[in-house]
Records
---
Amino acid sequence: MPKVVPPPVVEPPPPPIEEPPKIAEAEEAGDGEEGDPSAAPGGVTGTGIGTGVGPGAGAVKSKARKAWLLNTNWKCHRPGYEELGRVVVRIRVEVLTDGKPGQVTVVQSGPEDFNRRAVDCAKAETYLPALDPEGTAIVGSAEFGIEFLN
């Protein structure tokens, strides 16, 4: 008996998107009367949807940021093993609200002595704490690699 292939499923098109009223329609609706002191310049007020560019107060700019190193020049001396060449240990540091390190986790390890040295170096550093949108320090984390060169 031959196989019967079912017909393809055709989905109906999405419903049309409603457009916001045009300026003329908003004026006819009575928004922003000529003598209304609360009306915007031009005598029209209202709300809208979508994205746009133009003058206005807008939202308050966020002060949020991630935690990071206060100083990127620090040197973490290698624990010997010159024959290994370049070694990189990637770590994640929990940064407390005062900029001091909390828990330090090795994310990508190298030889065990290098891992220990990287954790010790990270605990000896100071960091910039993360900030929330209002600019208040919060607990965050910073992830970076420590490179041990010959």
---
Amino acid sequence: MELADVLKKLESLGTEQTKKTLLRHGANEPLYGVAIEDQKRLLKALKPNHALALELFDSGVGDAMYLAAMLCDPKALTQAQLNGWAKLANSPMLSESAVAWAAAESRFAMPLALKWIDTGLANVVTSGWSTLSSYVAITDDVDLDRPQIKALLDRVLKDVGKAPNRVKACMNRFVIRVGSCGEPLTKDAQATAKKLGVVAVDVGDTACKIPAATDAIAKILRAGSLGKKRKTAFC
């Protein structure tokens, strides 16, 4: 399929109800309102097509940008392209999920994430913390730099109070994700979570809940999921 064909297909799959739901969760126009399961079905008919993925993201249509991240080859993305994606991502669905997933599987995951959390641009900062969370989720504990992760946990405690709304949510999620690692990272995350307490995040007109990191890590321990890694950052 060509770009125009995919955009036309996405438009046909969109519904007003899904669009309203996505807008309520922070999405922005232009948007067709395509359900994730419909995007994944379309994805199967498109793979592999990295060039098309780049065109889809550049279209500026929210649904197409999300599809682009799932369709792309993360290892083929350049730093410049990922930087461009992070700046263009204008919703949590894109900045905290699609772009962060692609960045976490790219060749530049850690350096880009560390750069992004220092930008001061809220949507880019959320991509940075979310990339860190996804990177931790897919990387063997032995390959994680404990002093670096510990420094990031300390930074959460230092900066969360003055962080923008969605950045707080992403910081909290990072603490939980580190808590799912094996020892000694789990203990580092537990200590941070205890000091962090409940992070207050305005979730708007949604049913979303921001779990206390202490409770979320305890749930991981009860489930026996400590140290288990994801095969891919993408959901």
